[in-house]
Amino acid sequence: MTRGTLIWLGSLLVAGASPQLDFALGVLAGQRGDQVASATAIEKARAEDPTAFPLVERVAGMRRAAGDVEAASTLYRDFAKAAPERLDAQIAYADFLRDASPDDDFAAKMARETLEKAAERFPKQIGIERRLFRIYETLEQRERSRAIFEKLASSNRGDGDTMAAVEMARTLFPKDDLAGRVRVDELLRKAVEASPENPVLARTASEHFRNTGRLPEAVQMLELHVAADPASMDLRTRLGILQLAAERQAEGEKTLLDVLAIDPRQALAHQSLAKLYRKLERADEARPHAAEALKIRGGDPSEFLTLADEFLAANDPREARLLLEKAVFFNTSDAALAVKLAVATRRDPESRERASRIFREAEAQAGSEGPAKDPVFLTEFAESLLEGGQIPAAEARLRAAIRAYPAEQKKEAAAAMRRLAGIWEEGKRNAEAAKALLQRADALDPK
Fold first, then answer.
1. pTM for this predicted structure
2. Which of 14, 171, 338, 369 has a Cα-to-Cα distance from 354 of 20 to 30 A?
């Protein structure tokens, strides 16, 4: 207990008994695990201040937890009846009835009557109308629930009413009800036109049209929103994606590029552009966007490895290295990523000087089996070792690489053989072995 808490409790003790003190003592007893003392103190606090609704809720919750649902219900009912001006009490009592006895028709009737009386006192409370709608539907009083929908659909009270009406429409109208769909169409169009800056409304309208197979209308809803709020990056990105889906390729591409010009860390925009460019067979443009998407959101190691191989094949080791550095950050224990990073680090002129350390770290992490047996890794490692004057170690990696190349990679295996033979010839040693190795290379890959 803090010093401040002790001082506060002390001041309450000096002032005499109070509901605040008893409540505080109840909370402290509960923290100590003494639930009996906690319940007793909080019950006492409620008795001392019966107008404190939070205390009523706390005590009702304890009684319900103890299995005495009737006592909890009585607390809610008596308070709601004594304080009809308290909207929170009326809603809490109705919610309790529906939650504690969901299959009880009498409880549903009591909740309905409580909310209907509250609706007379609070005629424009969407919270009451939503709850009454659900109760009427449960009681199969469709005329009453439909009346609430019509009231909200025709009101001018704001976007909250529109959203509530749309939710109710999903219950009232089957998916194949064309007339019901038209009602929702009109409702959403008018609402978005009146409040285009509302992102929840715009997304709801767009998804409604998309899910009913009308992409042009779905696009239009987001276009209205983006025009009203150009800084809405998530929905602006969504607009670009829908434009692409609607075969408005140039517009979709421009929308997504505009998003990235404002916020380069929009992963979904990068991902969508990468997909577009691959579809158009513009791989050079696709790769950077695919890389940025992975760097931002992360991904499976295989995704990083595949894309890194694409960069290396395109003679772009720097981008491969940057991508793999991020991949290793996300997946520190993945040996395959460490091995590929070593290769990219050596091939990139900007980072070649530190490649030797990364090769050794990757080999140590991978062990004698697995990714470190990759022949590309071994040949690159050998070149790094040769640059550092470590000839025996380089020869050992080249021998391992020659053994590791699969049968179909004859040209690559022959290159490794010629490289090893060249080292021997340059050192004026192993002349017969070098000659034999060159003959094997020529048999695999005739010059």
1. 0.78
2. 369
